[in-house]
Design brief:
Order of helices and strands: HEEEHEHHHHHEEHEHEHHH
Largest sheet: 8 strands, mixed
Low-confidence stretches: none
Strand content: 15-25%
Number of strands: 8
Helix content: 40-55%
Bound molecules: zinc ion
Distance between the termini: 45 Å
Radius of gyration: 20 Å
Number of helices: 12
Mean pLDDT: 94
Length: 366
């Protein structure tokens, strides 16, 4: 097996490398099997590696693969941390590495999960009717047409560009990626209820954090922003204490709700749900979003993927080419890209560990 730096070729390789580097670093590992299997019949799981004292007052959680395919990068960064930085951990901090939050999407080289659900649109309040996205219905047939031959691609893409010209590109991004609950074979679909990974988090997040009173969460993503750049994105507004803690740790953090971020404001992201699950804890969290290719190429790959899976033949003719397109949109095998990504990761995780490692004094306010 290759323990080299950088991205692996498959979920299974990423997983094995993660488990091995966790064991070499002296971490405790717990695996939570997923009910389905990967493309080659391989087992799927959320693997959790934990390092540091059980009763630590501070915990840092680093998450990969919320968006399946984005886990190629997240897993490589977790491996990088275990191999090179596990010893830098301050004594009073426990580090929890959650590998492949959406293992099915990772293994099948998809951003979504086994239900075609975007996990970060699934954490809405299911007691209420899901949020409406009025614009989506009008362009659903353009985004995910019935076929994906060259002609259809060209016509529908031109129509989408015309929509962007008329309403603005930002409006198109908001309608497309803000989340929708009406088109199960569409893109950025939020589902009809809590999916497997969502239910898993509800059950396990509290245990991962234990008795800690301060928790940091870094959720690793790819596919938005300039090549190799890592933007920290917060799901809360600038006036929120959690946002201010984030900027104290990291400097610049972009608020998604205040419209500053490369991401559109969206419904149902899991970091917001984590705040509720850990309501009695000071949670400082951010998505770390790395840029790969341009937005249009990313969207084209997601459309191709959605059409492929809507066809019901995800292993059929042309499927490998679609998966290669998706992988290229969300993961870059250029060592220069990974160097940039890893050095930004070291900066972000290093700052979080430094802050969490400080012993709070009686007068401190969050
Ligand atoms: Zn993502």
């Amino acid at each position: 097996m290759d323990h080299a730096r950088g991205l692996t070729a498959t979920y299974d390789e990423s997983r094995r490398r993660f488990l091995q580097s966790a064991s070499l670093a002296g971490a405790t590992v717990e695996s939570h099997p997923h009910p389905l299997t990967g493309m080659d019949g391989e087992a799927l799981a959320i693997d959790v590696a934990t390092i540091g004292p059980d009763d630590a007052p501070s915990v840092l959680v680093i998450v990969s693969g919320t968006h399946g395919v984005e886990g190629f990068t997240g897993s490589a960064l977790q491996h990088h941390w275990l191999a090179h930085h596990a010893d830098d951990r301050p004594a009073g901090v426990r580090v929890v590495l959650l590998h492949a939050f959406n293992p099915y999407g990772f293994a099948w080289v998809r951003r979504v999960n086994e239900d075609n659900v975007d996990l970060n649109r699934n954490f809405v309040d299911w007691e209420q009717p899901p949020p409406a996205n009025e614009g989506y219905g009008g362009i659903a047939h353009l985004l995910v047409p019935d076929t994906w031959d060259d002609d259809t691609q060209q016509t529908t893409t031109l129509q989408l560009l015309a929509y962007a010209e008329e309403h603005g590109f930002e409006r198109l991004q908001a309608v497309v990626s803000g989340g929708q609950y009406s088109h199960p074979t569409g893109v950025f679909y939020g589902g009809t209820g809590p999916v497997w990974s969502h239910r898993w988090l509800d059950e396990h997040l509290r245990d991962l954090v234990g008795a800690a009173t301060r928790v940091g969460i870094v959720d690793l993503h790819t596919g938005l922003g300039p090549w190799g750049h890592g933007e920290l994105i917060s799901h809360v507004g600038r006036d929120d204490p959690a946002y201010r803690r984030g900027t104290a740790w990291w400097g610049e953090v972009r608020s998604m709700v205040d419209g500053e971020s490369v991401s559109a404001d969206l419904s149902g992201d899991w970091l917001a749900a984590a705040d509720d699950l850990l309501a009695d804890v000071d949670v400082t969290s951010a998505a770390l979003e790395y840029g790969t290719v341009d937005t249009v190429s990313v969207l084209q790959s997601l459309r191709a993927d959605a059409v492929l899976h809507a066809s019901g033949e995800p292993l059929g003719e042309g499927a490998d080419a679609v998966r290669a397109q998706v992988r290229a949109a969300f993961a870059d095998d250029d060592p220069g890209w990974f160097d940039a990504v890893a050095s930004r990761f070291d900066e972000v995780v290093g700052a979080a560990l430094r802050e969490l490692g400080k012993v709070p004094s009686a007068g401190d306010t969050p």
